[in-house]
Design goal:
single chain; alpha/beta; Nitrilase/N-carbamoyl-D-aminoacid amidohydrolase; 2 domains; eight-stranded mixed sheet
Length: 545
């Protein structure tokens, strides 16, 4: 009888722990999938913290199984769509990202052996945010699920990101979750009754204030940008969504035919401007990797470059921004770099994912994407993995980015152009504004993921960048969603998914600099410093124990 009762108790405890795991994964996934649900992240970590506390009280073994499973579920629910582009890459993204999260949580559990009270939870918070900051610059980087991104589709709550950046949102989420969790613990273990009236009042006022104040501040700040699109200083913009399936890009269409599709869309929108030298400047934006025939040291060998510059001769004051898989040919007897591929005897080439700006005078500017997708575009740790890739027959991408950001010019107007994945990196993105960009373009090709939450999440992250920098964005996606995004992060005009489309509008040009652009990620730097201090203290305590 006692044995059966013990088994029943164990089964019930396991159900409780697994229920908390699933609840955590659901609460933390919803903000990434459903608009205007970012507030759930302010409570979403509590089930995970409760699971840890209950497992500790029960002296449960192998607790890592629970928290690793929680992070795998969260990653799988929110980023399963990566498997549509590459099954191996998608599985790696889910399990490897969850593994890193689990390591942070495991480090927190380890800290509880020497830290007491609230200190382990402070350690968990700063360790997590320090990891998020590190992840932005890591050689293998996938910061898609940074906690502050939970509010990307709830922009009315986070207008203050212009001061803190996205990691300010991560800090808010941790502080709120830990405060509520601390209150629940004090109520459950009876310690609440030992608080005096002042302490109880401080808690009962402080927690609602911690939740509410950022919403109020966001509303106040947001009003300042309610008319940000109304400006005397602006540039007319035409965003072209050609809707060409990248999986069959050259199976049914030659590059010449694809050029015809794009230019026919342009012609339908601006044909009336032909040979009009008095027309105001116009920026045309076409998507990422639209063509693959650009040789950066011989533009005139490209059919696309010749076609575009010839077309634009009839359109004064018109500039065309488009994406290209570009190549640089290098003559050398020895490999010029670890990433170069052999073209022939004494000839090599480097690959780039580029954005080009051209006009009817054949003026050409180019920017090479620097934040590259691992494996698909970039071979990490090239000194090691390029050799392995050569043995496998060259299956990994070897694009090379620029050492630093540069701008493109639409006539006299300085613009930044973030290429696809670069729009996920907040502090990196500020580099365009630091260089003098008065407006931003984002060119991308999100069709690899199919009709999944992936392309909608990617679009929403552009709103975060608009808030952090207060620069309007002309976003062009090959198959959607293309959009004009205001400096407050609001999506003013957008296209439908998987259909040809054109957006015509005006983008305001701004020269003001936000606190985040000027000072960078202070939240991440401070949390990293505190994490290192606490880690050092933890190591000392273990060594002196």
């Amino acid at each position: 009888m006692q044995h059966n009762r013990f088994e029943y108790t164990m089964k019930r405890e396991n159900i409780l722990l697994w229920g908390l795991v699933v609840l955590f994964a659901i609460l933390m996934s919803i903000p990434f999938l459903i608009p205007h649900t970012g507030f759930l992240a302010l409570f979403g970590l509590i089930p995970l913290l409760c699971m840890d506390r209950i497992a500790t009280m029960m002296e449960k073994k192998r607790v890592w199984v629970y928290h690793y499973s929680a992070f795998v579920l969260w990653n799988a629910i929110t980023t399963f769509w990566v498997c549509n582009a590459t099954v191996g890459g998608g599985l790696f993204a889910v399990f490897a990202n969850a593994f890193q999260m689990s390591l942070i949580f495991g480090l927190f559990r380890w800290s509880k052996k020497r830290f007491r009270g609230a200190l382990p939870y402070l350690f968990l918070m700063v360790a997590w945010i320090a990891w998020e900051r590190f992840y932005f610059d890591a050689e293998i980087s996938w910061p898609w699920l940074v906690l502050g991104n939970s509010f990307a589709r709830s922009i009315g709550s986070i207008q203050w990101y212009e001061y803190t950046g996205t990691l300010g949102g991560s800090l808010w989420i941790w502080l709120t979750n830990l405060s509520i969790f601390g209150l629940l613990v004090s109520l459950s273990d009876g310690s609440w009754n030992r608080f005096n009236i002042k302490a109880k009042s401080a808690v009962l006022i402080g927690i609602p204030a911690l939740i509410a104040i950022p919403f109020v501040v966001s509303s106040i700040i947001g009003r300042q940008y309610s008319d940000a699109m109304q400006s005397d200083n602006q540039i007319e913009t035409l965003i072209i969504q050609p809707n060409i399936d990248p999986y069959n890009k050259f199976e049914f269409l030659s590059q010449s035919q694809q050029n015809d599709i794009l230019l026919s869309q342009v012609d339908s929108a601006i044909g009336f401007r032909k040979n009009d030298s008095t027309a105001a400047p116009l920026l045309i934006v076409a998507p990422e990797t639209f063509t693959n025939d650009i040789t950066v040291n011989h533009y005139d060998r490209s059919h696309t470059w010749n076609r575009f510059t010839s077309y634009l001769k009839d359109y004064p004051n018109v500039n065309l921004l488009f994406g290209a898989s570009s190549y640089e040919h290098i003559q050398s007897t020895l490999p010029p770099s670890k990433t170069a591929r052999k073209l022939g005897q004494g000839a090599w080439y480097e690959s780039h994912n580029s954005a080009l700006m051209v006009d009817g005078t054949a003026r050409t500017e180019i920017f090479h994407k620097s934040k590259l997708v691992v494996a698909v575009e970039k071979t990490p740790y090239p000194g090691i993995f390029c050799k392995l890739d050569d043995m496998l027959g060259g299956v990994m991408g070897r694009c090379v980015g620029q050492p630093e950001i540069s701008l493109l010019y639409a006539g006299e107007t300085p613009l930044g152009c973030a290429v696809c994945y670069e729009s996920v990196y907040g502090e990196y993105y500020t580099g365009y504004i630091q260089k003098g960009a008065q407006a931003m373009a984002i060119i991308t090709n999100d069709a690899w993921w199919g009709n999944t939450p992936g392309y909608r999440q990617h679009l929403s992250y552009a709103s975060l960048r608009a808030i952090e920098t207060r620069r309007a964005i002309a976003r062009c996606a090959n198959t959607g969603i293309s959009a004009i995004i205001s400096p407050s992060g609001e999506i003013l005009e957008s296209t439908q998914w998987w259909e040809p489309a054109i957006i015509k509008g005006y983008i305001p040009l701004r020269k003001d600099i936000t606190f985040f652009v000027s000072h960078g990620d202070i939240t991440g730097r401070v949390c990293t410093f505190l994490f290192l201090l606490l880690l050092l203290a933890l190591i000392v305590r273990f060594r002196t124990a």
